Amino acid sequence: MPTDHTFPGRWISAASMIGGPLLLLAGTLMRVPFPFFFPQQLAAVQRAPGLVIGGYTAFLAGNVLMWPAVVTLARRIGVTHPLWAAWGGVFVIAGLFERTFHAGINQAAFRMVRWRGLDPATAFVRDSYTDTHLFTYLSFTIMFGWYILAFGAYRSRALGLTGSIALAAMGLVPLGVLKGTDLFTIAGTLGLCVAFLPLGVELVREGPRPGRRSILLALLGALVVALLAYASTYG
């Protein structure tokens, strides 16, 4: 049966555009009290594990949640500028994968601080920092993807000049393992909020409100997902 539905859909895209940037900003601000580089970041895990690990976890959650927003913006750009949409969307999503990979190393280092101590964890990160792997060759996508997507958004009028510049600021956020918060990180995550939050609110408002049946199904689905998430911790 024909349908005008386009993946990932209005509600998922709106949730991504609103929740993703806010989580990234929250994770960024939680790391403000601690020096930027990895030895100090690992030392901070000993002093304030909840705040440090919570900040990194919030940033990771926001990073993963961003992909529907990127897909939706790329789809809007692609109406008039398909090449900018394709390159920008692919590069940004590859960059999201890259940051998720870095987050896995971060979490492993945090566990090493807990189970082996600060000095072994610091030595491990220092000695392995320049090791070559698949994502070594994709680091450029973390920066340049946002620039390409932002330029495409401006050319296609999917975003105005202010929103496009704000989106491009995300390319300033430092990349790599165990990076804390600096002015570029704050500027980038704030810019992402400026670019995406208005679009998310617009998506919420532009269509019909969900009916009672849809709300009940969504709540049931959320409960099932929560139970599956809990069960996954035993795997």
Automatic annotation (TrEMBL):
The keyword Transmembrane applies. Keywords: Membrane, Transmembrane, Transmembrane helix. The chain crosses the membrane at residues 12-30, 50-71, 83-105, 134-151, 158-177, 183-203, 215-233. This is Uncharacterized protein.
